[in-house]
Amino acid sequence: MITLLVGLVIVGALVLVGGEVYDAVTEDDGIAALDVPLLVWSMGHRTPDLVAAVNAFTHLGGPVGLPIIAFVVLVLMVVFWRSRTPIVLMVLATAGSLAITSIGKTVVGRVRPPQADAVPPYEWAPSFPSGHALNNTVVAGMIAYLIIRRLEHRWSRTLTVVLAAVWAVAIGLSRVFLGHHWFTDVAFGWVVGLAWLGLVITAHRLYLTLRRRPAPPEHPVS
Question: Which residues form the Phosphatidic acid phosphatase type 2/haloperoxidase domain (predicted)?
Fold first, then answer.
């Protein structure tokens, strides 16, 4: 039960933070005050070579690149670990993240930054939340969780978490740099992605705990 309690507390805290970001977006205050300044800063620091590099990188976390990466990693896990757990957890995690992204875009319907301030190819779907930020947070986080379960040393576990975090953060920031999203779109994606990831991991840890619990002894019938 401690696992469930800790997990739910973390998820609850992340949901509250996500709610604050959402309120800032709908009321145009708070952290939303960073949206325009960060876009202006990005525009002022773009160079042809940097834009090309960031564009290539952001596509790795896009609707084509990310599924390919996830598929390759899952195949390797299943082959070498001989376990279907990675498939079950990844399918559950990504199905939820895609649903959250779709619902958020439909409900909020936020307009993306002006095309004059963005880098082609342009995107037309609603801006909030950033699917790149949300889905990469979930996929990278789930891959890290699955790997960590197989690692023994703390330094290797820490490195795995750091690499996953750097990937998700970098993908999110690339969306702001290219003018495809406002910063709050990305921030909400990170936070809600972590919340959903935490919920899936908590459920899995609880399942493992209950599965390991010994069955109650049978009493002979008198």
Answer: 87-201
Domain ranges across the chain: 2-209
How many CB atoms within 10 Å of residue 31? 16
- The reported pLDDT for the residue numbered 28 is 84
Could you give the CA distance from residue 20 to residue 191 in angstroms, rounded to a whole number? 11
Let me know if 45 is a catalytic residue: no
Are the C-beta atoms of 130 and 175 separated by less than 8 Å? yes
For 177, the token pair is 């740099």
> Are 174 and 58 in contact, with CB atoms under 8 Å apart?
yes
User: What is the rounded CA–CA span in Å between residue 102 and residue 7?
Assistant: 25
Question: What are the tens digits of pLDDT across the range 122-163?
Answer: 888 999 999 999 999 999 999 999 999 999 899 999 999 999
Q: What is the pLDDT of residue 222?
A: 45
Given a contact cutoff of 8 angstroms between Cβ atoms, the answer to whether 79 and 187 are in contact is no
CA–CA distance, 72 with 135 (Å, rounded to integer): 17
From the candidates 45, 181, 204, 219, which is the catalytic residue? 181
Dist. CA 128–CA 122, nearest whole Å:
15
Residue matched to tokens 């301030």: 117
Which among 45, 59, 132, 153 is annotated as catalytic? 132
For residue 21, give the nearest of 33, 10, 11, 12 by alpha carbon: 33
CA atoms within 13 A on the CB side of 9: 6
pTM of the model: 0.91
